[in-house]
Amino acid sequence: MRGEFMRRGFTLIEMILVLSIMGIIGGTSVVSVRYYNTIKNKVDADYSCNAIVSFINNSKMYCRENSCSGIITFDVLRNEIKLHDGTTEINKLSLSNKIKLYEVIGRRSDNDIVSDDKGYSNDSCTIILKDNNLIEHRITMRVGTAYVKIIK
After folding, report:
1. What is the pLDDT of residues 59-100, one digit of tens each?
2. pLDDT digit string (tens) for 131-142?
3. What's the whole-model pTM score?
4. DSSP string for 61-99
5. Dihedral angle at the C-alpha atoms of 82, 84, 89, 93, nearest 10 degrees?
6. Rounded to an integer, what distance in angstroms lies between the CA atom of residue 30 and that of residue 75?
7. What's the CA angle centered on 147, arms 98 and 110, to 5 degrees?
8. What are the backbone dihedrals phi and psi of residue 79, each rounded to the nearest 5 degrees, phi first?
9. CB proximity list for 102: less than 8 A, separation 6 or greater
10. For this UniProt entry, which segments traverse the membrane (predicted)?
């Protein structure tokens, strides 16, 4: 009888071995998930930066092709960027909730970008985004450029 009872259970060494293996696997998976979230935030931020740059460049091209001036406005509270042609809203870019439009620092008091009918702007600005890890990402637009690019 005593021999049968011993065969049904686990020894203390077997339990310690299983728990230590589970601890090692659990520890490495936590590190992997943390690394994955860091990479995911970077990809989301890069995507948003590229979307903003494309929006500004496409807005300038719109003004050039339609021989009209336009104003690009930044709504930090709504996390949106809009192109206006006078009083009409032409286009809008809404950023995802993963990336926040944190601040726009520009020459103009309202921080808007005005583009003339040839697609040029005399407004310089820096657009600051923050990802879920609160890391800042900056897009800088220089005066007198036909296109905007990301400067790191």
Report:
1. 989 988 999 999 999 999 999 999 998 888 999 999 988 899
2. 888 899 998 887
3. 0.75
4. HHHHHHT--EEEEEETTTTEEEEEETTEEEEEEEPPTTS
5. -20
6. 37
7. 65
8. 60, 45
9. 76, 128, 129, 130, 136
10. 12-36
